[in-house]
């Protein structure tokens, strides 16, 4: 998809006026964080597990080449095949080549963010293969021709009335007068429609939450069972995975799984956690006859050894966006690409470029909640700061911002002058602010005063109060 | 070896500031993989005796909206299954995995249960399977694919009934992997390992949890308490 991250500000403005979106975002704020907190309260070891999870991923990243080779060897030993792709285009072609060879007409899909990243559906359609999303949220946005607004709840931006409207428009064979008010009816309708798609599909395509080096297995974490029907019934199973999904052993995966489900949905464990290894065995009576792992790099190897390496620990739980005040206000689509929220603000500039996505690392209050809830302890605010620094160093930030910052920096580097200037400014503003003690408008502060008053400074600066206090305490 | 493969591996090595991994690094990683070392395992399952593990398994499975019926012996299973189905007005026609673990159960004593052994099809409303293990920590079932346990039987029927023994319950996922490796031996991993915790669900419409998204709406566990544990 074509990113619209460059118009973040416009996107955000529209989002604020979208009543349905605002209603949906309210539901999120009362849902995910409370469930996460309740599940973590039951697991006193959660923080210790975070440290171990982080250490596992750090170890893998330092040895990523060895783990990838080991994984590949074990996939091949079980009769599977690994395809290496540097770019989205190579990954799309690898998938299409398998479809062509097997004469596939339809491909059912479990939820995979990598497929979103490489815009696989549009490409398959343009080449005569019909992709069918089977995760309910993904199915809803596919028929609406949208992209996900959340990495684990793709249709989070919609209310049920919108879903009902889309089902009526798409499921034309059904009685037009049928009732579709409530969630259970909608779920049942999607179930019966998609069941037929599962049975008819030629190929099933899923993502991977983990690639297990020890066994050459891929693992998905789901709740609906769609990923399982997707990979079990058709003649081939294609797994789309990015190269940082490697994990050493099933024991290591178990440790990270304890973090993943609780951080994501607040579940003790997901309904379905599925380990897939190779194609069906000679004496099996079901399962795919072919098993392919399509590895995508797309700029990830270039993140290793940089200040963004820590981002490669991300397990895509969504906790950072569930707890982000900016995400909760503008929703995922404002971010303009497939990865929203704090993790998107760090990842999107690496994948689509800082020219396109420069607004995203700036769309943060730096409150730090994302880092505090991240199960893999990724320093998200710090990495957003790295992007801002790069932007500044490459002279990409807006001129007014740059001059303002340079002006401030001039004083900040000269503490005596800074204190003098701030003291003076505080006194002047304090006296203009006068008896009301606040400003309704102020030059250069329109962004603030549009929505609220700016308090006027009162009396002396913090530094001078501090100095006076220290003198009092230790004369 | 594809060009892309070499380029990706090369880019990784350059970024990590080294050439191809040396022998010492490779050996260290191979050793790490072979050790299957356990990381921290939550205290909730540690120090429980077998009965305690089974009790925790049942409690956690029920929390995940599975239902559990505990019976004294294999002879009681057909009645428990029949009772479960009739109480919920579910059909008594069922598809049963051709799993030898289900052979010793006197199904014929309940002639009203209409049983077909084999692979599940779309029309099958009720499926009965065995399982490989139960994991107490989160009330999770471990099912593995094989000639007698097709994976589709765990997902196609609306109602999934799992028959298991108390001795199959282990404390943690790690204990489950240990048992699996021991059982599979040289063969390595089965094609599919399904860790199943409660019935299928979705929260994709307004984040309200609805059961029965694509897999079974109901998961019922019949647990035989009859085996002495090692």
Describe the structure.
The complex is a heterodimer of chains A (475) and B (230). By secondary structure, chain A is α/β, with parallel strands linked by helices. Chain A folds into three domains: 259 residues, NagB/RpiA/CoA transferase-like (Rossmann fold, 3-Layer(aba) Sandwich), CATH 3.40.50.10420; 77 residues, no CATH class; 63 residues, no CATH class. The N and C termini of chain A lie far apart (66 Å). Chain B is of the alpha/beta class and 230 residues long. Chain B is built from five helices and twelve strands. The longest helix of chain B has 14 residues. The N and C termini of chain B lie far apart (50 Å). The interface between A and B is large, with 101 and 76 residues.
- Uncertain residue ranges of chain B: none
**The level-1 CATH class of the largest domain in chain A:** Alpha Beta
Tell me what the CATH architecture of the largest domain in chain B is. 3-Layer(aba) Sandwich
Enumerate the spans of chain A where pLDDT stays under 50 for 5 or more consecutive residues.
Answer: none
Mean pLDDT of chain B: 95
What's the name of the CATH homologous superfamily of the largest domain in chain A? NagB/RpiA/CoA transferase-like
